[in-house]
Write a structure and sequence with these properties.
Two copies of one chain form a homodimer. Chain A has 352 residues and is of the alpha/beta class. Chain A has helices at residues 37-44, 60-70, 82-94, 110-117, 160-169, 223-233, 243-253, 256-279, 301-310, 334-350; strands at 24-26, 77-80, 101-104, 122-125, 145-148, 175-178, 199-204, 217-221, 291-294, 313-315, 327-330. In chain A, helix 4 (110-117) links the parallel strand 3 (101-104) and strand 4 (122-125). In chain A, helix 2 packs parallel to helix 7, helix 3 crosses helix 6 and helix 8 runs parallel beside helix 10 (334-350). The radius of gyration of chain A is 21 Å and the shape is globular. The first copy, chain A, starts with 23 loop residues before the first strand and ends with a helix. At the A-B interface, helix 1, helix 3, helix 4, helix 6 and helix 7 of A face helix 1, helix 3, helix 4, helix 6 and helix 7 of B.
Chain lengths: 352, 352
């Protein structure tokens, strides 16, 4: 059929497996804790009759709450269907030039997919052998810059000085700092948005706020950037956020204590897990996220991945050069991580 | 700032007003009835703890229910965040060629906005003076075709014979039939999807199913088209539908009796309203939707729009040539329409 010549053919992003059985699921960086009890309250008392109406197109109730939470103006906030929706919209909006955009060679693999679907030229800038991003490598002609800080799947964070250097040295580019994991460590670039018009910071409620199933992400930046982003958003879908997601997002922000407590638990378990993995001979960049990107010299990561899966422990394995030496292990509950460590001990004794 | 040269500048779609006060709201084609009581049940018993997990990326629970409902295979179904999200994804996927796509000059104004944001060349094909779409006008070189049936904002439906003629005469183009309003009348093109690989039909739960606030739309077509659409969707956002929206969509489909009853009520009220408007001297295309596109010779539609607004009755007015002679009036409850007619009577006696 010749209508296929008009079709945009792409190689999509592959999300992690979502097994239907009950397993120890450490493969998609979800929270092991439930969202705030306030989320359940909001859903269970939701006025279902109101669903006959369109939701607020400007998502006012949520942008207002986010602005108050982050001490910015409401027109410095943009919300979307998870930070993937926000980032996708950013690629479409800010990377519409001719010059290639820049992002690290090892990072969130969706960047390359968005560049492909929107036909954006790009250059992947190599990290160092230690998975470090060198700001000076971004001192070159470009049509935009995007990087994750802390980075994924490495878990490594860059200093705010380094982040600021990139933003400052590229005044002619929009610089997007993807802070999906910043709640678990690292320094946020948020204090810089008042000083740099070209900076946009993206966040998600999917990780530390345990709302992956609700799809809530957002961006913070200069009013100018947010206005351009909204123009494109309103050219794609006037109503991206459904009414329950707006209410749930607000409820989560209202429960700061719960957010801090569960995040602290994940961080404590992460630090414990680091010690145990070291003892078992694993190496890994020092993670500031809710996952650890671990490798063990002389041990096949792929085989370990398969063996763990047989024991109903799912971690993430990437079948590509360099990454295929590693497992990306999400931090679960303390008990789940103890089980993981026990199973690893047994496996490493017996099979490797 | 020179980073602006890389920014995609667009003129976005303008959705209808969403007044916060209690008014008679006949301006955005929402349902005057609540969604099925099963929707409230599902929300109020939703397992909020499960929100820590990502939702099903393939939206299986909902595509399965839709496939059963429409008697097609599951891989002939695509779901999205309202039919706007579905249509936007269709424009991005199927209209990636060099030749201009075709759509009517008077139709859903978002088509032109999507064409602009995705840089798709287009030709607007004039309707007849009677707002009729002539299939033979689409017998010309093109990179794709999209039209609404019944059409908006005219409310007019085209026969299935006409629809089939367009699909058959354009085997080298993907033809999208936007059936947002088909639940209220008109003939669906669904029976044709098994025979034409190039046909895609889009639907929404926002209107007859009273779920505008939940953002659920879908497309039905050949497996080949659905596969291409999914490839692009998974290149934009792996998880577009949040977990509650999947559950709510299924719940709505399970309550066929409620759906039929409320739709029948809207249709009955529409027919009553047509009679009343005729008596008041209005002309309008014979609507098969949940709105009436009405004009009254010698009466300023704009002034009527403003006067009704002052009386807390919101209808939709489009400030553009031809359309500015009309008001698009959504069908509310019988009581709301009786109030509207009464106010119109008073206004027309006094001020015009």
């Amino acid at each position: 059929m010749s209508f296929e010549k008009n079709i945009r053919t792409v190689v999509p992003y592959t999300p992690g497996e979502q097994p239907q059985r009950r397993v120890i699921k450490l493969n998609t960086n979800e929270s092991p804790y439930a969202p705030s009890p306030k989320v359940a309250e909001v859903l269970h008392s939701f006025d279902a009759d109101s669903l006959r109406r369109y939701p607020q197109p400007d998502c006012h109730v949520l942008t207002e709450a986010l602005a108050a939470y982050h001490h910015v103006e409401e027109d410095q906030v943009f919300v979307g269907v998870g930070s993937d929706d926000v980032l996708s919209m950013c690629f479409l909006t800010f990377f519409a030039g001719e010059k290639p955009i820049l992002f690290p060679d090892i990072t969130y693999s969706f960047y390359e997919v968005w560049a492909a679907v929107y036909r954006i030229p790009f250059i992947k800038v190599p990290l160092t052998d230690q998975f470090e991003l060198r700001p000076e490598d971004y001192r070159r002609e470009n049509g935009g810059i995007v990087f994750a800080n802390p980075n994924a799947p490495t878990g490594k964070a860059m200093s705010l000085t380094g982040v600021e250097q990139i933003i400052k040295e590229n005044p002619d580019s929009v610089v997007i700092v993807d802070e999906a994991y910043v709640d678990f460590g690292g320094e946020s670039a948020l204090p810089l948005i008042s000083r740099y018009d070209n900076l946009l910071v993206t966040r998600t409620m999917s990780k530390a706020r345990a709302l992956a199933g609700m799809r809530i992400g957002y961006a913070l930046g200069s009013k100018k950037l947010i206005r351009y982003l909204n123009d494109v958003k309103f050219s794609v879908n006037s109503y991206t956020m459904n009414a329950p997601s707006l209410a749930v997002g607000v409820a989560s922000l209202e429960d700061e204590r719960y957010f801090r407590e569960t995040t602290a638990k994940t961080i404590a378990t992460r630090e414990w897990t680091k010690e145990q993995l070291k003892k078992l001979g694993f190496f890994f960049p020092d993670s500031q996220t809710n996952f650890i990107f671990a490798s063990r010299p002389g041990t096949s990561a792929e085989r370990l991945f398969e063996q763990l899966k047989q024991r109903d422990i799912y971690v993430r394995y990437f079948r590509q050069p360099v990454l295929d030496q590693y497992l990306r292990i999400t931090i679960g509950t303390q008990q789940e991580m103890e089980t993981l460590i026990r199973e690893l001990e047994t496996l490493l004794k017996k099979n490797f």
